[in-house]
Amino acid sequence: MSASAPLRPDAGAIPASAAALPARRRSPVGAKAEQRVRDILRESRVVFAERGYERATTTEIAQRLGISEATVFTYFRGKRELCMRVIGDWYDEIIDAIESGLPRGRPIRDQLEFVVHTHLRLFLIQGTGLCELVLSEGRKREAPVTRGEGQDFGAAFVDLQRRYTAPLMDLLARGQAQGEVRQDIPLRLLRSLVFGPMEHMLWEVIIAGRQIQVDAAARDLVSLLWPALQAPDQELKALRRMKARVAQALAEAGDEGEG
Length: 259
Description:
Helix content: over 70%
CATH architecture: Orthogonal Bundle
Distance between the termini: 93 Å
Radius of gyration: 24 Å
Number of strands: 0
Number of domains: 1
CATH class: Mainly Alpha
Shape: elongated
Number of helices: 10
Order of helices and strands: HHHHHHHHHH
Strand content: under 5%
CATH topology: Tetracycline Repressor, domain 2
């Protein structure tokens, strides 16, 4: 089918140029239109979480809202852009939670544990539907795709992932600047070192139905990762600090004994 042939926005391939088009067909004007967009996004999140990208349809989303499918297309060009908006909004919620709660005055290791804990908690708090959607589409973009919606979806998904991982990249960069994180490994590999195990942990929940205790999982995962992330001399410094504390405690105990 040629790029000029008419297509339903939620079926088949779409022109590659669609990636350059605005995220919404029309910006909502007025309180009623803004509420309509919020309603569409709310129901879309539910449908994509329940059905996944391939089986979700804009028809079902419209039916759940009691509106025509054309109304959905008034604000969104089709299923792809609607799904990207749903994932993007969800990512923004998680990013806001990370950035607003990050204990910046604490050591980088403690901040990393907060990021890991927040990621695991919010990826699972709304059930596994959105989590499975994101992980599944992430896997698909790693495989070769033909020109069309799959390729456009993959490109948009890469941009979303880059935005989502920015807080972790910033944390690791600050850790390098402060001498707490190793500088001999590129940041992108350090990022993969953190997100890779979390992805496998989430897949266990989705596929095997395994339940995890988020607090313990985040703590254990960071305990496993930190020796590989920390600067080579950080462990030695920690041992020296411990030795100094022990020596101080022994000295204080000796003083009390003499008194």
